[in-house]
Amino acid sequence: MTTITNHMPTKELQALDAAHHMHPFTEDAALAKKGARIITRGKGVFLTDSEGNEILDGMAGLWCVNLGYGRKELAEVAARQMEELCYYNTFFQTSHVPAIALAAKIAELAPGDLNHVFYAGSGSEANDTNIRLVRRYWDVKGKPEKNIIISRKNAYHGSTMGGASLGGMSGMHAQGGLPIPNIAHINQPHWYAEGGDMTPEEFGLARARELEAKIEELGADRVAAFIGEPIQGAGGVIVPPSTYWPEIQRICDKYGILLIADEVITGFGRTGNWFGSQTMGIKPHIMTIAKGLSSGYAPIGGSIICDEVYNTVAGSGDDFNHGYTYSGHPVASAVALRNLEMLEEENVLDHVRNVAHPYLMERWQGLTDHPLVGEAKLVGLMGSIALTPNKETRAKFASDAGTVGYMTRERCFANNLVMRHVGDRMIISPPLVIKPSEIDILIERATRSLDEAYAKIKAEGLLKAA
Ligand SMILES: *Cc1c(COP(=O)(O)O)cnc(C)c1O
Question: What domain of life does the native source organism fall in (predicted)?
């Protein structure tokens, strides 16, 4: 058997999966008992599984399939590039057309003097590059001790040693000896869960000023950079209060700290602009990109680097001793370039801003009428709802965090909707091309799932506040 067809019975596929395929972020023994859902096809915003169910993908895969599934144009460009030049490296004073053309396109789309691209195979790898790049930058500047990077608790920056260390996920730090040295974490701007009696604006300022306090504590001569997602994605689609990012920018400017925006989710249209930094009004020195760069059709990531950082490292008189075999892979680059062209040709950002966002916003906000839903947030097409036993106090559930969220996600799964939970927050990030009629289906399935979850939560006595 050389290829696995879609015609094998689901049970057999699940048995092979359990026997040989170890899944990311999964308790594999538990999954093996239950059997994975096998996805066989995708078209537009819908997936089909091996049992023939049509599932609305409210997450665009893992926040990446922004143009939707099954786009022939991207398949064709990949096939053509494989025939013409399947692979070549960009290490030893060589380059190739797809890597060049894509870098030029990214530089054209990126704001300000973010004019230089270093390629990686993923967002995690790109953030590993960023750690080495900002440390190298200060080294060349004669400040090798300026090497601490400040990040936030509950941030997600990937799963490599570097990426997971930058991230602030306690469950990840608990495994494998993380974080690596010289990474510091401050609190996140998560008003709904942690804002107490402060207004969102007061709380945003207070959380931003933790950066200033941390810089003062460590010494500005020790701090290389601050990294943050313009809007936290995997942490629960947490939209910071409006006061937060301007204050972070002011503090980075004041102390001469590089600002890294992790745009892996927020880049390429997700927030209605090309980059989340534009939506949040910040000017980073470096952006991390991946996911929507290729709409997930090929694995590719990278760092977009400003003139100052690039010129310093490029002009150091020495090599930057870093790179990946697949940096700027020609097939992935060709696919990504075509993806960006299609986002432009099809006016996808206009569609997000003027059609999909306003329509989904109205219907998403409507979910706050549901007895379980305390708030509904949506920027562009990334959204979240908070589940709570008490809307007035924004209370957490007495049950372990994520119990109610997981029960709700299970109902979504059963109702053929992919909507994830992060703790007791439900999150969506649908393909950017989603139509109003498909948004209606999303809301209808989400509402039914919330109703069913609510009945179950009540029946099991889980509606108690902590
Ligand atoms: C997904 C993600 C990453 C990691 O990207 P991978 O391609 O999975 O390595 C990094 N940062 C953010 C903000 C992400 O959402």
Answer: Bacteria
CATH code of 287's domain:
3.40.640.10
Q: 78 pairs with which residues across the strands?
A: none
**How crowded is the C-beta side of 415, counted as CA atoms within 13 Å?**
22
Pocket of ligand 1 (CB under 6 A): 122-124, 127, 156-158, 229, 233-234, 262, 264-265, 290-291, 301
Q: At what angle do helices 244-255 and 200-218 cross, to 10 degrees?
A: 20
Cα–Cα distance measured from residue 452 to residue 398, given in angstroms and rounded to the nearest whole number: 20
Alpha helices in 288-435 (DSSP H): 307-314, 330-345, 348-351, 357-366, 403-414
Both 261 and 369 in one domain: the answer is: no
pTM over 0.70: yes
Residue 427 lies in a domain: yes
Q: Which of 229, 237, 291 to probe ligand 1 with, by most ligand atoms within 8 A of CB?
A: 291
| 174 and 310 part of one domain | yes
